[in-house]
Amino acid sequence: MVSYRLLTDADVSKAFAVWLRKKRESRKWSRDALAARSLVPASTIKKFELTGRISFRQLLVLWQCLDDIGVLYDAVDPDKRAEVKFPQTIEEVLKDGF
Question: Which pLDDT value is given to residue 34?
Fold first, then answer.
């Protein structure tokens, strides 16, 4: 059974920011070290980690420095994703536990 979550863009952005910080810290890199590798300013990295706000291009550059960019690509590749069914009625939403 598919489970549905109500997420805002802020929820997803903050999740990316938390992920990025954990990956950076696991490598024992400072923000300055990541900035030197990515050419994204350390102040932008700090702002992203604290607020979740960053440009998409800068997010991709940071991701590429910290992980395989193919993982992110596979998440949106229609050949790799299973088709997700979305509820069509309120009854379908309520049946799933909301």
Answer: 98
Number of domains observed in the structure of the chain: 1
In 3D, which of 39, 8, 34, 7 has the Cα closest to residue 20? Answer: 34
Helices 56-66, 42-51: crossing angle, 10 deg rounding: 100
Q: Which two tokens stand for residue 97?
A: 């536990």
User: Is the predicted pLDDT of residue 2 greater than 60, yes or no?
Assistant: no
User: What CATH number did the domain enclosing 67 receive?
Assistant: 1.10.260.40
25: helix, strand or coil: helix
Closest CA to 22 of 11, 10, 34, 6: 34
